[in-house]
Amino acid sequence: MSKRPYVLASAAMSLDGFLDDTSDERLLLSSAEDFARVDQVRAGADAILVGANTIRADNPGLRSRSGPDPVKVTLTVSGKLDAGTKFFTTGDAAKLVYAASAAVPSLASQLGGLATVVDAGDPPDLHRILADLADRGVGRLMVEGGSAIHTLFFAEDVVDELHLVIAPFFVGEPDAPRFVGAGPFPQGRMTLVETRQLGDVVFARYLAGQAVVDHRRLGEAVALADRCPPSSTFRVGAVITDADDNVLATGYSGETDPHDHAEEAALAKLGADSRLAGATIYSSLEPCSERASRPVTCTRHILDAGIPRVVFAWREPDVFVHAQGAELLRAAGREVVEIPDLAAAVRRANRHLPGLAEE
Ligand SMILES: NC(=O)C1=CN([C@@H]2O[C@H](COP(=O)(O)OP(=O)(O)OC[C@H]3O[C@@H](n4cnc5c(N)ncnc54)[C@H](OP(=O)(O)O)[C@@H]3O)[C@@H](O)[C@H]2O)C=CC1
Ligand SMILES: Nc1c(N[C@@H]2O[C@H](COP(=O)(O)O)[C@@H](O)[C@H]2O)[nH]c(=O)[nH]c1=O
User: Which family does it belong to (predicted)?
Assistant: First the structure.
């Protein structure tokens, strides 16, 4: 299977499962508190995707007040997109339009320098689109809909996480867009990991497939950092699993020597091991890309060990160096998954570091 970003689908629906009504006005389903949450989720995404019909219907800006704007992405078969819509005219982030082959030439000339138009095949191939996004450095993709797009993503079984909001009213119009239409959806139960009341709406967060395993193993890596001896550097935990999710080794910073990094301590227990070719390394912190204590970085150790998959919680902040572990690993073709939900706990475990005392 080709590499793809972590996909987070986000939708707000009515009690009867509609994303909108049939009026020309955009229907607000979220509460003010929920719109603030969505804004933060956007800030944590590398890119945000909506279907061409949502651009035509809502003219969304797709920006974030809480952080950097994500790259904007859309999909179209018809190529009917208006260069004057906010998707193209607002924000400095890159805009990507994945279009059916036949629509590419006219769209490219119509949009000029406003967006990059990418040939998505004929018919467009979602897996090709996701692989291209991964190649462009998109590790975390937020999919905001609408109905056809959610249906496509769930039917292709590429959703790792779902944020579903239920607003306390009915729409009751048969022609309004539903959260999803009919489709060959994955049949297993998703894992409910969080529910919250936000004003008058219910927010529910679900994980699916590999994301369930990744959150559990990354949680174990985060907990392992509690074993680190007192230190003036990062306190980190790491777990290495094989292709069947069996634990091969664990490690934590300072485990046998004050200079040990967690990933290094775990890898040192394995040596050359053929199981590493299908392994995942979970680390509470982004693997280091520069270090003073020893000559070989954890990014280099992971590359040399041949581990194809890296999952981490917290991007290394600029305390000692400007880290680039995630970028270097991605550039070397490794799959890198960032799970920021667990980052706050890792940050708390590192409050002893300069500049990190305050939340
Ligand atoms: N409440 C909420 O959370 C949200 C609500 N909405 C609502 O959803 C509605 C829009 O949903 P919907 O009408 O289903 O439209 P979508 O936004 O899902 O866009 C569908 C369009 O995407 C393009 N497309 C679909 N499948 C593919 C494919 N395989 N490859 C390439 N392009 C593809 C086509 O564009 P083209 O026609 O150009 O070929 C298609 O018409 C609006 O009313 C909006 O307000 C939207 C987002 C969130
Ligand atoms: N109506 C609705 C949502 N609609 C989504 O938000 C987009 C508008 O984005 P922007 O213009 O940037 O604010 C819109 O096109 C659609 O994707 N989202 C939600 O979480 N809750 C809601 O009730």
Answer: In the C-terminal section; belongs to the HTP reductase family.
